[in-house]
Amino acid sequence: MPGIYIWTVDFRDIAPPALEGKFDEVYAQIKQRIARPQNEALESGMVGNYRHVAIQDRSPELTGASVERLTRMVNERNLHLEWALMCATMFQRPLYVGKALNLASRIKTHVRSGSRLSRDLARLQLTPSDCTVILLPVRSPDNIAELVAAEEARRRSQLGNEEETPRDDSIIEDIEDLGDEDYSEHGLDLEDELEYDDVLTLDVSPALKQADELIRLAESLTIRLAHPLLNSRMD
Fold first, then answer.
1. Which string of b and e fits 47-66 if b means at least 16 CB within 10 Å?
2. 186: left (phi over 0), alpha (psi -120 to 50) or beta
Protein backbone atom coordinates (compact mmCIF):
# COMPACT_ATOMS: atom_id res chain seq x y z
CA MET A 1 0.00 0.00 0.00
CA PRO A 2 1.39 3.46 -0.91
CA GLY A 3 1.75 6.26 1.62
CA ILE A 4 4.15 8.33 3.70
CA TYR A 5 5.76 7.48 7.03
CA ILE A 6 7.80 9.08 9.80
CA TRP A 7 10.43 7.62 12.12
CA THR A 8 10.35 8.79 15.74
CA VAL A 9 12.06 7.89 19.02
CA ASP A 10 9.85 5.34 20.80
CA PHE A 11 8.78 6.18 24.36
CA ARG A 12 6.14 3.46 24.70
CA ASP A 13 8.37 0.83 26.32
CA ILE A 14 8.88 3.14 29.32
CA ALA A 15 5.32 2.40 30.45
CA PRO A 16 5.98 -1.05 32.07
CA PRO A 17 8.66 0.16 34.53
CA ALA A 18 6.46 3.21 35.24
CA LEU A 19 3.59 0.94 36.26
CA GLU A 20 5.99 -0.94 38.55
CA GLY A 21 6.81 2.29 40.38
CA LYS A 22 10.45 2.50 39.22
CA PHE A 23 10.69 6.29 39.11
CA ASP A 24 14.50 6.55 38.83
CA GLU A 25 14.54 4.20 35.83
CA VAL A 26 11.64 5.98 34.13
CA TYR A 27 13.12 9.45 34.67
CA ALA A 28 16.57 8.38 33.42
CA GLN A 29 15.10 6.87 30.23
CA ILE A 30 12.97 9.92 29.49
CA LYS A 31 15.93 12.29 29.97
CA GLN A 32 18.12 10.13 27.74
CA ARG A 33 15.58 9.91 24.91
CA ILE A 34 14.81 13.62 24.96
CA ALA A 35 18.51 14.50 24.64
CA ARG A 36 19.88 11.71 22.46
CA PRO A 37 18.64 12.73 18.97
CA GLN A 38 20.13 16.22 19.40
CA ASN A 39 23.73 15.24 20.24
CA GLU A 40 25.14 15.75 16.76
CA ALA A 41 26.02 19.16 15.32
CA LEU A 42 23.57 20.04 12.56
CA GLU A 43 25.92 22.48 10.82
CA SER A 44 29.54 23.50 11.36
CA GLY A 45 32.01 25.73 9.60
CA MET A 46 34.03 28.94 9.71
CA VAL A 47 32.38 32.28 10.53
CA GLY A 48 34.53 35.42 10.45
CA ASN A 49 37.63 34.90 12.59
CA TYR A 50 36.13 31.83 14.28
CA ARG A 51 37.55 28.72 12.69
CA HIS A 52 34.90 26.29 13.90
CA VAL A 53 31.33 27.22 14.74
CA ALA A 54 28.75 24.48 15.36
CA ILE A 55 24.96 24.75 15.43
CA GLN A 56 23.24 22.17 17.60
CA ASP A 57 19.62 21.45 18.42
CA ARG A 58 19.22 20.66 22.12
CA SER A 59 15.87 20.03 23.78
CA PRO A 60 15.35 21.59 27.22
CA GLU A 61 15.24 19.24 30.19
CA LEU A 62 12.01 18.63 32.09
CA THR A 63 11.09 21.44 34.45
CA GLY A 64 10.76 20.87 38.18
CA ALA A 65 6.97 20.94 37.87
CA SER A 66 7.06 18.26 35.15
CA VAL A 67 9.33 16.07 37.28
CA GLU A 68 6.91 16.40 40.20
CA ARG A 69 4.00 15.35 37.99
CA LEU A 70 5.98 12.39 36.70
CA THR A 71 6.91 11.39 40.25
CA ARG A 72 3.29 11.42 41.39
CA MET A 73 2.07 9.45 38.38
CA VAL A 74 4.73 6.77 38.75
CA ASN A 75 4.22 6.47 42.52
CA GLU A 76 0.45 6.22 42.02
CA ARG A 77 0.85 3.64 39.18
CA ASN A 78 -1.26 5.93 37.00
CA LEU A 79 -2.38 3.98 33.92
CA HIS A 80 -2.81 7.21 31.93
CA LEU A 81 0.97 7.75 31.88
CA GLU A 82 1.07 5.33 28.93
CA TRP A 83 -1.07 7.80 26.97
CA ALA A 84 1.42 10.64 27.65
CA LEU A 85 4.27 8.44 26.41
CA MET A 86 2.28 7.66 23.25
CA CYS A 87 1.78 11.39 22.65
CA ALA A 88 5.54 11.96 22.97
CA THR A 89 6.16 9.16 20.44
CA MET A 90 3.67 10.41 17.87
CA PHE A 91 4.00 14.20 18.04
CA GLN A 92 7.74 14.74 18.43
CA ARG A 93 9.97 16.24 15.75
CA PRO A 94 10.49 13.37 13.26
CA LEU A 95 13.83 11.70 12.78
CA TYR A 96 12.98 10.92 9.16
CA VAL A 97 10.08 11.39 6.73
CA GLY A 98 9.74 9.11 3.73
CA LYS A 99 7.34 7.86 1.08
CA ALA A 100 6.84 4.54 -0.66
CA LEU A 101 4.49 2.78 -3.04
CA ASN A 102 4.86 -0.29 -0.82
CA LEU A 103 5.14 0.78 2.82
CA ALA A 104 5.87 -2.70 4.20
CA SER A 105 8.69 -3.30 1.74
CA ARG A 106 10.26 0.12 2.34
CA ILE A 107 10.29 -0.20 6.16
CA LYS A 108 11.94 -3.61 5.88
CA THR A 109 14.60 -2.01 3.70
CA HIS A 110 15.28 0.70 6.27
CA VAL A 111 15.76 -1.70 9.20
CA ARG A 112 18.13 -3.94 7.26
CA SER A 113 21.71 -3.82 8.53
CA GLY A 114 23.82 -1.47 6.42
CA SER A 115 20.98 0.71 5.15
CA ARG A 116 21.52 4.45 4.94
CA LEU A 117 18.93 5.18 7.64
CA SER A 118 20.49 2.61 10.00
CA ARG A 119 23.83 4.38 9.63
CA ASP A 120 22.24 7.79 10.20
CA LEU A 121 20.52 6.52 13.35
CA ALA A 122 23.82 5.12 14.60
CA ARG A 123 25.32 8.63 14.41
CA LEU A 124 22.63 9.70 16.87
CA GLN A 125 23.40 6.68 19.08
CA LEU A 126 20.09 5.11 18.07
CA THR A 127 19.14 1.77 16.54
CA PRO A 128 15.93 0.90 14.65
CA SER A 129 14.69 -0.91 17.77
CA ASP A 130 14.85 2.42 19.68
CA CYS A 131 12.39 3.88 17.20
CA THR A 132 8.94 3.35 15.84
CA VAL A 133 7.34 4.07 12.47
CA ILE A 134 4.08 5.95 12.07
CA LEU A 135 2.37 5.16 8.76
CA LEU A 136 -0.27 7.05 6.83
CA PRO A 137 -1.40 5.00 3.84
CA VAL A 138 -3.20 6.49 0.86
CA ARG A 139 -6.84 5.76 0.24
CA SER A 140 -6.22 4.08 -3.09
CA PRO A 141 -8.22 2.13 -5.66
CA ASP A 142 -8.91 -1.47 -4.65
CA ASN A 143 -6.40 -2.81 -7.15
CA ILE A 144 -3.47 -0.56 -6.11
CA ALA A 145 -1.73 -3.39 -4.23
CA GLU A 146 -1.79 -5.56 -7.35
CA LEU A 147 -0.44 -2.68 -9.46
CA VAL A 148 2.42 -2.09 -7.02
CA ALA A 149 3.25 -5.80 -6.91
CA ALA A 150 3.30 -6.01 -10.71
CA GLU A 151 5.64 -3.00 -10.96
CA GLU A 152 7.98 -4.46 -8.30
CA ALA A 153 8.08 -7.80 -10.09
CA ARG A 154 8.92 -6.09 -13.38
CA ARG A 155 11.76 -4.12 -11.80
CA ARG A 156 13.22 -7.12 -10.05
CA SER A 157 13.16 -8.96 -13.34
CA GLN A 158 15.10 -6.10 -14.95
CA LEU A 159 17.66 -6.25 -12.12
CA GLY A 160 18.20 -9.93 -12.81
CA ASN A 161 16.42 -11.14 -9.70
CA GLU A 162 15.06 -14.59 -10.53
CA GLU A 163 13.49 -15.21 -7.11
CA GLU A 164 10.56 -12.97 -6.30
CA THR A 165 10.63 -11.62 -2.75
CA PRO A 166 7.42 -12.52 -0.88
CA ARG A 167 5.08 -9.57 -0.45
CA ASP A 168 3.77 -8.37 2.88
CA ASP A 169 0.77 -6.07 2.57
CA SER A 170 0.24 -5.71 6.32
CA ILE A 171 0.77 -2.37 8.04
CA ILE A 172 3.86 -2.59 10.23
CA GLU A 173 3.51 -1.09 13.71
CA ASP A 174 6.41 -2.72 15.57
CA ILE A 175 9.66 -3.21 13.67
CA GLU A 176 11.53 -5.31 16.22
CA ASP A 177 10.40 -8.58 14.61
CA LEU A 178 11.59 -7.71 11.10
CA GLY A 179 14.51 -9.80 9.94
CA ASP A 180 17.74 -8.78 8.22
CA GLU A 181 17.33 -10.14 4.71
CA ASP A 182 20.30 -10.46 2.40
CA TYR A 183 19.38 -8.88 -0.94
CA SER A 184 22.88 -8.99 -2.35
CA GLU A 185 22.38 -12.56 -3.52
CA HIS A 186 19.53 -11.31 -5.69
CA GLY A 187 21.62 -8.61 -7.35
CA LEU A 188 20.18 -5.73 -5.32
CA ASP A 189 22.50 -3.21 -3.68
CA LEU A 190 21.39 -1.81 -0.32
CA GLU A 191 21.70 1.80 -1.46
CA ASP A 192 19.85 1.09 -4.71
CA GLU A 193 17.09 -0.69 -2.81
CA LEU A 194 16.39 2.45 -0.77
CA GLU A 195 15.48 4.25 -3.98
CA TYR A 196 13.74 1.18 -5.40
CA ASP A 197 10.37 2.76 -6.20
CA ASP A 198 11.52 6.35 -6.69
CA VAL A 199 11.28 6.38 -10.50
CA LEU A 200 8.32 4.97 -12.40
CA THR A 201 8.52 4.03 -16.04
CA LEU A 202 6.21 5.54 -18.64
CA ASP A 203 4.23 2.33 -19.11
CA VAL A 204 2.80 2.04 -15.59
CA SER A 205 -0.94 2.43 -15.03
CA PRO A 206 -2.54 5.88 -14.50
CA ALA A 207 -3.69 4.82 -11.02
CA LEU A 208 -0.12 3.97 -9.98
CA LYS A 209 1.19 7.26 -11.40
CA GLN A 210 -1.49 9.16 -9.53
CA ALA A 211 -0.64 7.44 -6.25
CA ASP A 212 3.05 8.15 -6.81
CA GLU A 213 2.43 11.86 -7.43
CA LEU A 214 0.21 12.07 -4.36
CA ILE A 215 2.70 10.56 -1.93
CA ARG A 216 5.55 12.65 -3.40
CA LEU A 217 3.59 15.83 -2.71
CA ALA A 218 2.62 14.67 0.79
CA GLU A 219 6.25 13.85 1.62
CA SER A 220 7.51 17.18 0.31
CA LEU A 221 5.00 19.20 2.31
CA THR A 222 5.57 17.17 5.48
CA ILE A 223 9.37 17.52 5.30
CA ARG A 224 9.15 21.28 4.95
CA LEU A 225 6.76 21.68 7.88
CA ALA A 226 8.15 19.02 10.24
CA HIS A 227 11.90 19.68 9.76
CA PRO A 228 13.00 16.05 10.30
CA LEU A 229 16.54 15.64 11.64
CA LEU A 230 17.86 13.10 9.12
CA ASN A 231 16.34 14.06 5.76
CA SER A 232 18.87 15.42 3.26
CA ARG A 233 16.79 15.16 0.06
CA MET A 234 13.83 17.47 -0.26
CA ASP A 235 12.14 15.66 -3.19
1. eeeeeeeeeeeeeeeeeeee
2. alpha
What residues make up the domain containing 64?
A: 13-78
The neighbouring-strand residues paired with 133 are 7
Claim to verify: residue 118 and residue 65 sit in the same structural domain: no
Q: At 85, which helix (H) or strand (E)? A: helix 81-91
Of 21, 31, 19, 10, whose CA–CA distance to 80 is shortest? 19
25 backbone φψ class: left, alpha, beta (φ>0; ψ -120 to 50): alpha
Q: Rounded to an integer, what distance in angstroms lies between the CA atom of residue 174 and that of residue 144?
A: 24
Residues facing residue 4 across a β-bridge: 99, 136
Q: Verify that 208 and 168 share a domain, yes or no.
A: yes
C-beta of residue 134 within 8 angstroms of C-beta of residue 8: yes
- Could you read off the pLDDT of 177-191 as tens digits, one per residue? 333 333 333 333 334
Residues 18-65: tens digit of each pLDDT: 999 999 999 999 999 998 877 666 677 888 888 788 877 778 899 999
